[in-house]
Amino acid sequence: xxxxxxxxxxxxxxxxxxxxxxxxxxxxxxxxxxxxxxxxxxxxxxxxxxxxxxxxxxxxxxxxxxxxxxxxxxxxxxxxxxxxxxxxxxxxxxxxxxxxxxxxxxxxxxxxxxxxxxxxxxxxxxxxxxxxxxxxxxxxxxxxxxxxxxxxxxxxxxxxxxxxxxxxxxxxxxxxxxxxxxxxxxxxxxxxxxxxxxxxxxxxxxxxxxxxxxxxxxxxxxxxxxxxxxxxxxxxxxxxxxxxxxxxxxxxxxxxxxxxxxxxxxxxxxxxxxxxxxxxxxxx
Length: 284
What we know:
Elements: H1 4-14, E1 20-27, E2 30-35, E3 46-47, H2 52-65, E4 74-77, E5 96-99, H3 100-109, H4 113-122, H5 126-135, E6 141-142, E7 168-170, H6 172-185, H7 187-194, E8 212-219, E9 222-231, E10 234-243, H8 254-270
Antiparallel strand pairs: 1-2, 1-10, 3-7, 4-5, 6-7, 8-9, 9-10
């Protein structure tokens, strides 16, 4: 049986420099950690950044599973969908047409903001997406399109958090639920999460051949990463949502390093250290 107290100590030590952190660790059906690992009160609604894209993927995947859409449906990305920031579509000549499957892969694997705006419109717009989230019992919300100046919905993250509201609000536990549901519904969606290219945080010390389905999100001081790892029939889910006053996008952002070290030490505690890249872990 995994020592929950040791697990809490690991994540308390590694995340001590962050203003707010919510860590979830699940091994198979057992939730070993959920909240601030030090036992302090924890925010429930974070500025979610790109983590909301997981919920868009869940809605799209459910519609495909219900026969309402097909992954082969053609979708046209237009200048109206444009957003700066993450992704590649903001450098493409638009309009551009692609399959719904490829649009989702860009939204999840590259966290493409322009693809996200397009997916939002495919699903009916911000209000329609939020209605679907509410129908599914989620309190997470899309506040507006990425990088656009529309008036956001009148919901904000917990006021104690240092980062200003972004384009989404996400509840950490809901994110893991949404990811799990989406990947269970469709193998293609699972592969989209496995294609996540941001490896600064939880995946930093994993061997490059380890398959880790996860999603990251960054905005202002918010740094989030959550994913699912399978080894020898066991399933490990790890989620870290955090906020701080440190804003620059950097591979060595304190939250990225904290998540990476916490993940590596968790794997060691479980006896899964064979998944770690020996050339990079342990760190002196």
